[in-house]
Design goal:
globular
Length: 140
Amino acid sequence: MKKEYTNGEVTIVWQPDLCIHSAKCVQGLPGVFDNQKKPWINTGGATTDAIIAQVRTCPSGALTSYLNTVQPGESSPSDPSAIRAVVLKNGPLMVHGEITVCDAEGNEVTRGPKTTFCRCGGSANKPFCDGSHKRNGFEG
């Protein structure tokens, strides 16, 4: 599922299935992101530049954005040499860059610009992280 919110200049794309509930968005820009309200994203709550900067901090890639003058998919694919994997302390493995994930049955899904993989074993959305590491006390 994907939901889009726009202020006319920028569109925020939210993919709830990717969210690991780090709350970086809510803490970083509460005028735009407020999980106590419906809808929880208010694109009028900050400038376009502030929104873009905050969305870039989303650790899971559940939040992305695009300028309305440049539609998603118009840019070229990620440079494979720019892909980077980072182990987050007591959390998931985060991969920066566009990647293709192939499961045991051969099904493929392309993800990016950030993808988080479960390291704790508790995710209900394996191989991707769903934030279970916070609930099960994962350390590593």
